[in-house]
Design goal:
Helix content: 10-25%
Shape: elongated
Radius of gyration: 16 Å
Strand order of the largest sheet: 2-1-3
Oligomer: single chain
Strand content: 25-35%
CATH topology: Adenylosuccinate Synthetase, Chain A, domain 3
CATH architecture: Alpha-Beta Complex
Number of domains: 1
Distance between the termini: 16 Å
Largest sheet: 3 strands, antiparallel
Length: 79
């Protein structure tokens, strides 16, 4: 969990249509130590390493989708 968020409201999901995989930030690290907050100083921010997880994309145009059922399975994993 990053910044105590357990979910997000993702808009413009269609901008991810063309990606084979999508990298999602999972946690931050400073000097080898996992942190659960967004650094508040430039000094800390300069040392941050973001750990990502690569998830499968859907490589399908969803701009005309209007129902949950019509979303590709992989796109449902993000919403």
């Amino acid at each position: 969990m990053i910044n105590n968020y357990t979910s997000i409201n993702l808009t413009k999901l269609d901008v991810l249509d063309a990606f084979k995989t999508i990298k999602v930030g999972m946690h931050y690290e400073i000097d080898g130590k996992k942190i659960d907050y967004m650094p508040s100083t430039l000094k800390e921010l300069g040392k941050v390493k973001v750990h990502t997880e690569e998830l499968p994309g859907w490589e399908e145009d969803i701009t005309k989708v209007t129902t949950w059922e019509d979303l590709p399975t992989n796109a449902k994993n993000y919403v």
